[in-house]
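QA checklist item 7 of 12: single-chain prediction sanity check.
[x] sequence parsed
[x] length recorded as 231
[x] structure emitted
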Amino acid sequence: MPNQPMFPNREGDQTLWFANILAKIAGYYAGLDISVARQAKLTLTLNWLIWTWQTYITARRSDGPAATAWRNNLATGTPDPAVSPLPPVPAALTPPAGTPYFGMLTWLFEEIARWKTAEGYSDTIGQDLGVIGPSASPHLNPPALTEDGVAQNSVSLGFILHEHDGVLIDSMRQGDAAFSPLSTDTNAPYVDNRAVKVPGQPEWRDYRACWWDNATPSMVFGPVLRVLVNG
């Protein structure tokens, strides 16, 4: 489990910590510069964390001893007509809406770090939300693109968003004088399907990217990636 001074040690207190943020954060959306997209992701994240801590783990822990006891009885138990021979059925659980993702708690810590850099943040807000104390620093290094696949007239570009909304990708093809914006993307990979300038002739393409948050590019670009594309 991540070690965060603001994050309670006891699981029961952790559930209350999630619930407190979920109950109060809507009142701070504007002051903490939480975009609509981040609001949706935050709600999804907190609902899944609360359900997992409070419902899923509790049910699974209850299922385990019952399943073990039935297995032992099946193996060596004394026959008893009054006891059903059928195994116990695991608890039926209804998860929250939406699709979870791995790294939810890590993302939440990074999101809280972003709140603390907002102009509207104050210690009063931090106390109310229970987030006073050091937290994970936001990922400030510019994004590094990776070549995830090259085909005829096609390049697949990979990237990791960390806690950012998306990336702005610039491109410069063989013969171009300078970089120019190619696309913004909020999900990897990005696929550049432009045909080569001269059919049948390979060309190199340079790519670079910067963070795209709240519909605004940082304009601080990561390293240039050069790819050779066949036409």
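[x] summary fact logged: The chain has four helices and eight strands.
[ ] second reviewer sign-off
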